[in-house]
Amino acid sequence: MFPIVEARWLAPDVKWFRLRAPLIARKQQPGQFVIVRVHERGERIPLTIAGADAETITLIVQGVGKTTKLLNTLEAGQAVLDVVGPLGRPSEIRRYGTAVVIGGGVGTAIAYPTARALKQAGNRVLAILGGRTRALVILEPEMRAFCDAVYVTTDDGSYGEKGLVTDRLRQLVAGPERPDFVLAIGPIPMMRAVAEVTRPYGIKTMVSLNPIMVDGTGMCGGCRVVVGGKTFFACVDGPEFDAHQVDFQILAARNAMYREAEQRALAEFLAQHPHPPDQCRLTQAHPELLRPLAPAP
Amino acid sequence: MNSTNPLPPKERMRIPRQRMPEQPPAERRANFAEVNLGLDAALARQEALRCLHCKSHHCFTGCPVGVKIKDFVELVLRGDYLAAAAKIREDNVLPAITGRVCPQEDQCEGQCILGKHGEPLAIGYLERFVADYERRVGQVGLPPNAPPTGKRVAIIGSGPAGLSAAGDLVQRGHQVTVLEALHELGGVLIYGIPEFRLPKHIVHEEIENLRRMGVEFRTNVVVGRTVTVDELLGSEGYHAVFIATGAGLPVFLNIPGEHLCGVYSANEFLTRVNLMKANEFPAWDEPIYDCRGKAVAVIGGGNTAMDAVRTALRLGAATATIVYRRSEVEMPARAEEIKHAREEGVQFLTLANPVEFLGDARGWLTGIRCQRMALGEPDASGRRRPQPVAGSEFEIPAQVAIVAVGNRGNPLVQSTTPDLKTNPLGYIEADPQSLKTSKRGVFAGGDIVTGGATVILAMGAGRRAAQAIDQYLRTGEW
């Protein structure tokens, strides 16, 4: 069992956890993930590590399906049944020059430790944080703490610039300080669009892929992705890959493989949990209540 | 041990081999309960009466772990089933498991003199009978442990090689910790072999026995990631490490369309059902492709292929077909698995090899393009090499395809242990007898050394490793 030391809401449906997992905390590097199982009959899902100190790791969880919503019902003092890791290859941290880190929604949580490592490696780091709406833009203060510039875009214009992360990226790549490196983490359409923006300029662009996994150690091959025409296992060869080489269409198709089952499981879960904390009407009416109270590590 | 068999040899040979009671095929193909029901005491006695108690006892030499078969069969005859089980346990810590999954026809029973003129003694059935009896009465005859040596051994992997080494090492007085990457113990016994062939509660009970003997188990530890071999030997304070990680890296066919939805590795398909209980979705969370009414094709002819195809049937597949590039004679699966599969309605498409997976616009599998094969000269394995027949391509419909053509060595441990020698296939190099690797204090055995083999061969490697580790810990000599 992995005790939850701290838990709080970052945004509607997005929860921030600190878990006691000393072995993983000591080993983890930016870009790596853990596999989590929440209850005795639970599935195994990958979650990227958003940070760590000597004894604990940070996970930021978006409640999209049954397992993540169930996880998000947990509070400090409770525990997660199984956490295994750190898995996957760490991000490749180099001194590129100017690096643009793009986080779409909860993707920002995954990009955050790598962005910080890039800064520590001497890069100029620009962040573009996107979300459908203001409440879904997370970790902005944390990113501002070390980034040389932070741009925020929202689809509905409720905060920052109205538009997509790629709108801002286009300006950056066409502007006077063309980036030398781009890391984009978020929904598949966003990552694919970012790849198309940087491709003509030949800017090295990495994306963190989120295929369906079971064991996370290379044993099942369920997470295979096609990159540069070759098959890789995201769990051991990734999760970060060259965005210009990734076959996003195959990734999207494979991620939809269990959609019916996922929807059924979610519907049954919601029927049993008619009022989960992340659907509290008060916080829905006042999303500012969900903004971070203290800086995340 | 003297024979108390009242029958003269000629009469013994007249008794037919007893049949294993089993679930009727039409029933069992729709459930996950065990197919073989086990002998009762009367059947077991009748079978034990057949043993010729030969001086040469070839059965013993055919057993990879050297179970004293003649003696335990004699104890069955005497009705002392607990003593029979204890006799097996002297050499085999997992008798309820091996009695179910060993390829006896290639080992003990393959050597039995009775088999020269008729059918061999059903040693596997008898082994299972006494192991089940012992479990049922709850008096498992655990062997005593030697006084503590103060030495600590880390075993990487809780599959058959790791468990068998753990049992032997703890008996020799060493402190043993088994590290498992998954959340559940048992390795391939849990994630690979289906419930209908090896009920999981049996694996749990055997592991519980080892725990009672003093073995410590830790789940959710991926060696190579959570901790490295060097750390185990250094800061973690272990005196020796046994790598028994198995061959857990699925081989794909590398043909077009392998990424389509509906194409699985056997590892994934079986793990979803066996470990994650996807057959009980939504009571359990892990999903699996809804096979009901679908055409399922399994590529391969080994035990894993048989497990996958029979699992697909139980998930409601309309058709479940083995696609194998050689003929049935060359199939590496246990004879009983092929027989059971056929009885349950599995179809066999032999001398056929997939060349492309076909899909629809959404990226879902719709069929497989295959080519006919013909058998040529024998290859290195002694089996006749299949060769494509020109212009023989044809298509079969399939919404699910499961690739069961073997595994390679999972590189997680090797890639993080720089001074560990591996061969070009990714397996760890270890001395066949002592199982010593190129790194002092580190031993390796089972599928991670030999490539995909059997439960009992992995257990045999675990035993040899335990012996060599014990010697190393006592003498310090490498």
3D structure, described in words:
The complex is a heterodimer of chains A (297) and B (478). Chain A is of the alpha/beta class and 297 residues long. Helices cover 28% and strands 30% of the residues of chain A. Chain A has helices at 22-27, 66-71, 107-120, 140-144, 165-174, 188-198, 234-237, 248-255, 259-272, 281-285, and strands spanning 2-11, 14-20, 33-37, 45-52, 56-62, 79-80, 82-87, 98-104, 124-131, 149-154, 161-162, 181-185, 204-208, 224-227, 230-233, 240-242. Chain A is globular and about 55 Å long. Chain B is an alpha/beta fold and 478 residues long. Chain B contains 20 helices and 16 strands. In chain B, strands 3-2-1-4-16 form a five-stranded parallel beta sheet. Chain B has a five-stranded parallel beta sheet with strand order 6-14-7-8-9. In chain B, strands 10, 11, 12 and 13 form a four-stranded antiparallel beta sheet that branches. In chain B, helix 5 (69-77) packs antiparallel against helix 6 (81-89), helix 5 (69-77) crosses helix 10 (123-137) and helix 7 runs antiparallel to helix 10 (123-137). Chain B starts with 8 loop residues before the first helix and ends with a helix.
